[in-house]
Amino acid sequence: MHCSPFLAQYVTQRHAKLHVTEFPLATETVTASTYMDDSLDSMETDSKAVNLSHELMELWNLAGMHPRKWVSSSLIVMENIPIEDRLKEVNICMSKLPQLKTLGLIWEIFSDLHKVTLQKDNLLQREVSSEKQLDYWKRLCRVLAWTCSFLNNVRLTSSKRPFGELEVQELQDAETLVLLDCQKFPDEYAALSKGRSVSTKSKLLSLKPFLDENGLIRSSERLQFSDVMPYEARCPIILPRRHWTTKLIVKHHHQKNCHLGTNGTLAALSSRSWIISAREEIHEWERQCAWCKRRKPKPSTQIMANLPKVLARSSKAFEQVAVDFAGPFITIQGRGKRRTKRYLCLFTCLTTKAVHLEIALGLDADSFLNAFFRMTSRRGIPKEVLSDNGTNFVKASKELKELVQSNLDSDKVKGSLANKGIIWRFNPPSAPHFGGVYESLIKSAKRAICGILAKGDLSDEELMTAFIGAEELLNSRPLTYQSSHPDDNIPLTPSHFLHGMLGGSLAPDIDCSPYNPKKRWRRIQEPLRHFWRRWMREWLPTLNQRRKWCESSRDYQES
Questions:
Q1: CATH number for the domain formed by residue range(s) 316-474
Q2: Which member of 115, 180, 300, 318 has the greatest number of CB atoms within 10 A?
Q3: Nearest to 463 by CA among 375, 363, 345, 348
């Protein structure tokens, strides 16, 4: 069974108060010197300590509890404790008893001293929430200031001891002691203390260091005569990298400036100190800061998937397409120069990476369908269309399906290749990385259009001309390696595949049978065969390599 500390304390103290007349010493120890299952008390004489141990044993036995792990700095007390109830690590025959940790204190049993050990590294290892972050640098200075104040008061009589809160000078003196311990530059300190310059191989040479009146190493830079800057900014204290005190100071300024980033923290640090490789030191702390890690999480990755079939098979241009919108572009209408928004509708061939640009008058389904039918009239009806989950695309897909289904009753329509239904595939919602094929071309298209257009008012006709010019530029981009040798083949471009087709929705499939010179009509197909062979040999193998996301990771599981 598990109970709360409050209930445990209440039960033990209630039990002791019920038997206060029988066991007065034990009752006082339980109520004043016991926490949970640990009791820590002291007596003036060995006999009183022996009586206390007997009373505690009887008190706990009445409650059905058996006290164990007894330990005392008195050998007389230990001799009165049964061997099986003593702490196993303690042997009264030993010349020196070990140290024991109890209630957060270190107890030297032999000398009966209690100590507190401060682990410097632990000040950095603890991570707390952003609402309760502690300033360990200020805390360290205050603890040291109180300790120094206590040591000074011990040497004074009670009438001369100061009372109240710490003075500003006491905090500054404590901070100086910590910084003196931090500056681990033994060779430089030895040279400066003797009035010599530092070695030419020293990291501090460019800072021209000197010792101030407190023995701190400061930088003597070129701003000595700047009256607008305080002394600590003109002569900052030099701090080493990767020292625990340096990390505390970086953390203090990082939190004080609300986690603004590297430049903000560095500016705050420069007002008093000069840290060797300060940016690297700040970056190290930013990688440890719990609040910064939550604010800038690193997305998990999975191994890059295999290429889908639609990207790895040979087919006619624009047989499998992807579509996306960009814009708006502002155009003027009529003499009144009424301004209207126009949009770029980009169609990408998933096989040849050719593009077709259309102007759309709006983002509604009707405008998209008009642009779609203009594309199919010139490039042919595609078998598959890929797009994101835009409302105009979803509505257009439904209307096209209804149009095809309403005409399927006609045998003539069933037998016509031009009226085949279109398979429309949508990317998952809020997943633009699924459309990397066309998203990158949208960027290139916008760059080409902006390069063609000049600043000023445009009409719809001028915008359409810019779109067609950008389409020609994009379709002329090389897909394969472009060699500088004049005897090598020119690189493949999307235009090679577009100009080798007859065009229209009834364009013939690619004929891969051996070429017969007697059939002159085959001369038209031979260049296309050549381009497709190069596409299979030069372009397609370049898609085989995974350039990122090369390792498998564990998939997230729904919890």
A1: 3.30.420.10
A2: 318
A3: 345
Peptide bond into 508 cis (omega under 30): no
Structure tokens at 248: 């505390």
Residue with tokens 């206060």: 20
CA 535 to chain centre: 40
Answer CATH for 139-295 from 2.60.200.30, 3.60.15.10, 1.10.340.70, 3.40.1280.10 = 1.10.340.70
Are 129 and 290 contacting, i.e. CB atoms less than 8 angstroms apart?
Answer: yes
* Residue 513: closest CA among 501, 527, 526, 496: 526
d(CA 422, CA 394): 13
> Where do the domains of the chain lie?
5-115, 139-295, 316-474, 494-543
Closest alpha carbon to 499 in 329, 352, 358? 352
Tell me: the pLDDT tens digits for 223-273? 777 777 788 888 889 999 889 899 999 999 888 888 878 888 888 888 888
In this structure, the strands spanning 423-426 and 237-239 are unpaired
Residue 331's DSSP bridge partners are 340
Query: How far apart are alpha carbons 210 and 219 in whole angstroms?
Result: 7
Amino acid 326 reads A
How does pLDDT run across 174-216, given as a tens digit for each residue? 999 999 988 888 888 888 888 888 888 888 888 888 898 888 9
pTM to 2 decimal places: 0.43
Closest to 259 measured CA to CA, from 70, 82, 130, 118:
130
Contacts of 200 by beta carbon, 8 Å cutoff, 6+ apart:
none
